[in-house]
């Protein structure tokens, strides 16, 4: 994954409403944004991706995570079809859990410039150790209702 987040898309041609090819890498995936019709109101948007997959950069075996993305929009919203395609582009991408989780949060933040964003990556165990990764931009806007993400830490059989 590149270390420098991409600049926001300015193209008016959204992926929404038309057939598009699945991106093969996160770098080639286009993340669309649309104007926020409620930009004068603080509110929370939550995306849940309970079946996120990427590849271990060492073994090439699949890694699985439950991602929770919460953000308080500013002028822009993330267009959900493009987010789905972006997240799917990680299926053949090798990166550690920490890199995937933080890179996704940073990319969304660069593209839409939210008032606030957080991402929780709840990774399923490999080698007996689950890894949970959390990242956010700044402080929560005053008065914003931010519910708990509600994803239990891994408990195995118990």
Automatic annotation (TrEMBL):
Substrate binds at residues 78-80, 97-98. Catalyzes the NADPH-dependent reduction of 7-cyano-7-deazaguanine (preQ0) to 7-aminomethyl-7-deazaguanine (preQ1). Keywords: Cytoplasm, NADP, Oxidoreductase, Queuosine biosynthesis. Pathway: tRNA modification; tRNA-queuosine biosynthesis. The keyword Cytoplasm applies. It catalyses: 7-aminomethyl-7-carbaguanine + 2 NADP(+) = 7-cyano-7-carbaguanine + 2 NADPH + 3 H(+). It comes from the Bacteria. The active site is at 56 (thioimide intermediate), 63 (proton donor). GO terms for biological process: tRNA queuosine(34) biosynthetic process. HAMAP family: QueF_type1. GO terms for cellular component: cytoplasm. One of its GO terms (molecular function) is preQ1 synthase activity. Its EC number is 1.7.1.13. Belongs to the GTP cyclohydrolase I family. QueF type 1 subfamily. This is NADPH-dependent 7-cyano-7-deazaguanine reductase. It is an enzyme of class 1 (oxidoreductase). It is found in: Cytoplasm.
């Amino acid at each position: 994954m590149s270390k420098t987040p991409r600049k926001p898309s300015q193209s008016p041609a959204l992926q929404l409403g038309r057939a598009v090819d699945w991106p093969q890498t996160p770098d080639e995936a286009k993340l669309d944004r649309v104007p926020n019709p409620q930009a004068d109101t603080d509110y929370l948007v939550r995306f849940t991706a309970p079946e996120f997959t990427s590849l271990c950069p060492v073994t090439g075996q699949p890694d699985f995570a439950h991602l929770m993305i919460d953000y308080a929009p500013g002028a822009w919203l993330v267009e959900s079809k493009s987010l789905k395609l972006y997240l799917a582009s990680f299926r053949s991408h090798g990166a550690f859990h920490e890199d995937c989780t933080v890179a996704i949060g940073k990319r969304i933040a660069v593209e839409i410039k939210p008032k606030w964003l957080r991402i929780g990556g709840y990774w399923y165990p490999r080698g007996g150790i689950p890894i949970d990764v959390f990242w956010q931009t700044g402080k929560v806007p005053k008065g914003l209702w931010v519910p708990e993400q509600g994803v239990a830490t891994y408990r195995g059989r118990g």
